Amino acid sequence: MKAIRALWRSLRSLEGNQRACLFTEPLWSVPYNLFLPFVSLYMSAVGLSDAQIGILASLYLASQFLWGLFSGAIVDKYGRRRTMLVFGLLAWTIPCALWATAQGFWQFAAATALNGMWRVTGNSFSCMIVEDGDTERLVHIFTILYIMGLLAGFLAPLAGLFIGRFSLAPTMRALYAIAMALMTAKFLLQFRMARESSVGLRRRAETRGCSLLSLTFGGWPAFVAALGRKRMLLCVVLAVLMTCFDTIQGSFWPLFVASEYGVSDSMLSVFPSVKAVVTLLVFLLIVPRVSLARVRRPLLAGIGAQGLGLAVLLALMPLHALWAVFFSAACQAFALAMLGPLFESLMATSIPGAERARINSMIYAAILLISTPAGWIAGRMAESSRVLPLAMNLCLIAAEVLVALGIVRVMQKKQVGGVA
Q1: SS3 for 271?
Q2: What are the mean pLDDT values of the chain's consecutive 10-residue runs (420 residues total)?
Q3: Could you tell me the end-to-end alpha-carbon distance of the chain, in angstroms, rounded to an integer?
Q4: Which positions ≥6 away from 404 have C-beta within 8 Å?
Q5: Contacts of 249 (CB under 8 A, 6+ apart)
Q6: Is the dihedral of CA 326, 327, 330, 336 positive or negative?
Q7: Contact indicator for 67, 357 with CB cutoff of 8 Å
Q8: What angle do CA 124, 219, 400 make, to 5 degrees?
Q9: DSSP letter, residue 288
Q10: pLDDT at 420
């Protein structure tokens, strides 16, 4: 109860842009988390092959890389508030319309390419959350954001009922149409409620008359200097591994449990509810007690849960034990709850504040560029066997553990007076 009260106090005390961002977030997070579990199955139902699904996963990362690279310059030149509106509509309203009417690969490809623009909104959103706000409550703020996304988990069985009655494709088209309307409302309301941050106003004045190219690549020295810090470099490596893992897991876990465990399209809607319950419990009872000063146990616990869930799922595949799918989903939820807010806070506090937008964009662009082949490789593997992408993820988890231990050592040295 103490942890819950702490989150409630943080939510009630929010002001300015932090309040505008968090209070409008359910209009995006609820529809997004409703359609997310069924995306790869929807693609398959429309007629896409596993290889094409893998290509789209890599295209998604490539698009994010391109827009992520320029996002810092765009956010600085045009302002945090304005870019949230314009690129929010480009990255979500138009793609949702395309997904709702998609008939084949190329419509999905067009929507995927546009959807990568969310990296610009993500950068501006991060700046609006951090700048002019209470940074001491960052872990609580990111925790609240994740909890808002869980609201959809409890509504997912309703989507499953409609899928059971009307089949997957028509239900998904309706969900995308609803998402288009709600997300559009979110960006319009947030624009009205928010104000440009003090850092944003200063950066707009400083960048007036500068081209996007010069602004983008002019931040190269600051980017190199940031990577020169051991903690920042290790965080980037961990982010690459986690991005590869999430790309593969999101695209091929639903296809794997459908083909190897016989999970139906409508039954798949049960797992978001399981994840929502587990994640909510972890968010409310464990995460508020997590501190950046003591990251070792929560970091390793999150990564370990991912590995345990996958190992059990693969080991019990010949037995078709349905409980293993539930266990795997619960482990994913535990890992998301532990790693999400913690890693966001680690990255936010590792990036220097003066050049936050440009360094943020270049760091995430580098992460996405390195991660881009993951979807294509996993898709090629899935053409042979849908077991292989998940086996690849087990290897990524082993690497994550080693890098996480490195981050912990660097932070411990800093705490005792060493230089990271």
Answers
A1: helix
A2: 66 77 88 88 94 95 89 88 94 97 95 95 86 71 75 76 88 96 96 89 87 79 78 89 93 92 84 83 78 77 93 91 92 88 75 65 84 93 93 95 89 61
A3: 37
A4: 238, 299, 300, 303
A5: 332, 390, 393
A6: negative
A7: no
A8: 70
A9: G
A10: 42
User: What gap in Å lies between CA 321 and CA 314, rounded to an integer?
Assistant: 11
Q: Which helix (H) or strand (E) holds 94?
A: helix 94-101
Select from 56, 70, 64, 75 the least CA-distant residue to 370. Answer: 64
Residue with tokens 């390793």: 300
Question: Three-state SS for 239?
Answer: helix
Cα 393 to Cα 36, 120, 245, 358, 400: the distances in Å are 20, 28, 6, 31, 10
Residue pair 379/55 in contact by the 8 Å Cβ criterion: yes
Amino acid identity, residue 149?
G
* Distance in angstroms (rounded) separating the CA atoms of residues 375 and 372: 7
Amino acid in the structure at residue 117:
M
Residue 355 has a pLDDT of: 61
Q: Which two tokens stand for residue 261?
A: 């465990």
DSSP class of residue 291? B
DSSP result, 97-152: HHHHH--SHHHHHHHHHHHTTHHHHHHHHHHHHHTTS-GGGHHHHHHHHHHHHHGG
